[in-house]
Amino acid sequence: MAHQKDRSLIAVIGDEDTVTGLLLAGVGHVDSKQKPNFIVVDAKTTLATLEDAFIEFTKRKDIGIILINQHVADDIRSLVDEYHQAFPTVLEIPSKDHPYDPAKDSVLKRVQKLFGDDQR
């Protein structure tokens, strides 16, 4: 069983600008099986590819955080909303062309429910 200290990577699912910026910041990694910890999502990316990447990243024992552009998370919203594990933590982030909307964020929705603030 992997421990939290073993989860040293940040995975990224996002548009080209977001992924490029985070790779330049040093989050990129390719494991021994040639599996990267990032995926660039564009108009040609199929829904199945996006879903598979999300599921794979949530099952990897070396990933502690998954950063996903919120507009990309919207494409797989049911998967993101159903994911309730603490690790890896899924954080929705804005992109250059799509601002962040706290009303859509699955983590904030759970926090609001926890505190009885579920106002939509």
UniProtKB/TrEMBL annotation:
One of its GO terms (cellular component) is fungal-type vacuole membrane. SUPFAM superfamilies: AtpF-like. It is a peripheral membrane protein. One of its GO terms (molecular function) is proton-transporting ATPase activity, rotational mechanism. It is found in: Vacuole membrane. Keywords: Hydrogen ion transport, Ion transport, Membrane, Transport, Vacuole. The keyword Electron transport does not apply. It holds the Pfam family ATP-synt_F. The keyword Lipoprotein does not apply. It comes from the Eukaryota. Belongs to the V-ATPase F subunit family. V-ATPase is a heteromultimeric enzyme composed of a peripheral catalytic V1 complex (components A to H) attached to an integral membrane V0 proton pore complex (components: a, c, c', c'', d, e, f and VOA1). Subunit of the V1 complex of vacuolar(H+)-ATPase (V-ATPase), a multisubunit enzyme composed of a peripheral complex (V1) that hydrolyzes ATP and a membrane integral complex (V0) that translocates protons. V-ATPase is responsible for acidifying and maintaining the pH of intracellular compartments. This is V-type proton ATPase subunit F.
